[in-house]
Amino acid sequence: MLKILILEDEQKHLDILTAYLARYREEHPDFQYVLNVYDRGLSLLSEYNCGADLIFLDIRVPDMLGIDVAREIRKSDENVMIVFITSLAQYAIDGYSVDAFDYILKPIKYASFSAKLNRIRRILSYRDCKTILELRSKETTYRVPADTVTYIESSGHDIYVHVNGQTIKQWGTLGKFEEQLREAHFVRCDTSFLVNLKFVQGVQKDTALVNGKVIPISRARRRDFLTALAQYRGGTS
Fold this sequence. Notes:
Number of domains: 2
CATH class of the largest domain: Alpha Beta
CATH architecture of the largest domain: 3-Layer(aba) Sandwich
CATH superfamily of the largest domain: Response regulator
Oligomer: single chain
Order of helices and strands: EHEHEHEEHEEEEEHEEEEEH
């Protein structure tokens, strides 16, 4: 079940959004959600606890700009999906500075709303990772949620798992981890590197920036890696 927040001070647009959510649920019985509605940015921020999956933010509300609300949210929550609602597309450009997913133009049309919600649900399903890695060192055994692992690299017969600023050395093959993490949005970008798409910050011609680390992308794997990244971010079906 998704937790959805709406920041919208105009009742007619709020009514449209809530009606579209209800219509979408009727068309997709597996879509369930809880909804909290706000007409002031400060009210939303005062109650925000990083528990939301999706926020629809009006660009302009009486007490502050939606972009400023998003900036405050991003200080504590990097994962919630943000969609701006605006009358003019030019006002949504700044949304990319706060890693907004997209924007919706007023007057809101159901076809556009439904298409964006389809993409959002697909991305959230990719992110919903329950896989646990069991890692062993000389001193202890770790049970690590796969979603917290940034990348895994191999060197000879040694495997290095990078998680929460820590590196845990293992023995084995990268192929074993690749198979285990196939459903957990990990993709091989090079013979020696398996990357968690969640932590990819950008891609250059032959490198990816992953949680501040520059990692090579081989020519042979570049197309598959970029396709997987686009799907994860909702760029393709």
